[in-house]
Input
Amino acid sequence: MAYPDEIRKIYKDELEGIREAGIFKVERIIHAPQDSEIDVVFPAGSDQKHVINMCANNYLGLSSHPDVVNAAHAGLDVRGYGMSSVRFICGTQDIHKELEDKLTKFLGTEDTILFPSCMDANGGVFEAVLTEEDVMIADRLVHASIVDGMRLCKAMTDTYKHSDMKHLEKKLQLHQDKRVRMVITDGSFSMDGDLAKLDEIVELAEKYNAMVFVDDSHASGFIGKTGRGTHEHCNVVGKIDIITTTLGKALGGASGGCVSGRAELVEMCRQKARPYLFSNTIAPVVVAGANKVLDIVTSTTERRDKLEKNTEFWRKGLTEGGLIIKEGETPIVPVMLFNAKLSQDFARDLYDEGIYAIGFFFPVVPKGQARIRTQLSAAHDMHHLEKALGAFLKVGKKYDILHKTKQEVIDMYGS
Ligand SMILES: *Cc1c(COP(=O)(O)O)cnc(C)c1O
Output
């Protein structure tokens, strides 16, 4: 190693600080395909444990679906393993164009461009379409990848309080002198599981002559009657100027993202977005799998319907059992524990009961709002959910927090 011990010490000390602050992230190793039941080793060196998975973004249960796996195998056979090129040189196959067309139809837009990930889509899109004459007005809880993408863009940055339409309206009024105003939001917010008020946002955008940007990563494939996303749920299909989303969650869960929307904006990304121009796109094997995923989600709503039923059962069961959840309708169901240590103890006890879920606390969520975020999947069958519910209530009883108010829980454990 070239660098001396003094430099090594800088990093060792910082890592020690992260450990002492109790926010050191340790990964649990899965020894199985991603599914509703998985084999996990945690902590390192301990025995493998078979658990029910309550924390994957595998909303439609397609991550290990045999039809998707077979389509990926076939894609590997007919289109090879790698592209060894970016799109605009010699990295575009027929199946990439096919996937872009399918996404355009599914999302109800004019055109779509693939990116290596949604992180890259968000990293490239703002800089490609906005200049210093423009303003970006973002919800204060947008995803980290949007925050980074905005940083790379020269347009002015402003924010509005989470889902506060009055505040958004004020900001739109304030920025009437700008060339372009872009309202930026997640469709479904991943920590609380609430949905953006896209109908009201579109109305304001029309009133104040603005563009609407929605990142629908936690919605594409299952929110809305036919799973098209938050815009379908809010009845504004065709009115969102830019949708970004990921193939890494409900839509097969492998990797990849896209920008979908107005044809000229998509073309601007093809010409100018740096993560598109300077990084390889999605590998053929993943594209072939994603094409199959799009066929599945456009031909039947069976999976999103099952997910909806699972979500109803889960939300009702937790509430009636006496736990406090964030109200809502999405398959993201946060079980509120308020105290950071309680969230960690609760998750550990769940794991002992064979239920895999993760406790989140500051700085991932605001102080005093520690929680266990549970996520439903169409891959869950009733027996999974019944067992998981039993475990949540058993552990809840152990900590004596069932049928207690928020204040009573905080009085017992602090926040
Ligand atoms: C997960 C997520 C992303 C990142 O998606 P990748 O394709 O994994 O990069 C971006 N935005 C939101 C809102 C997400 O939830």
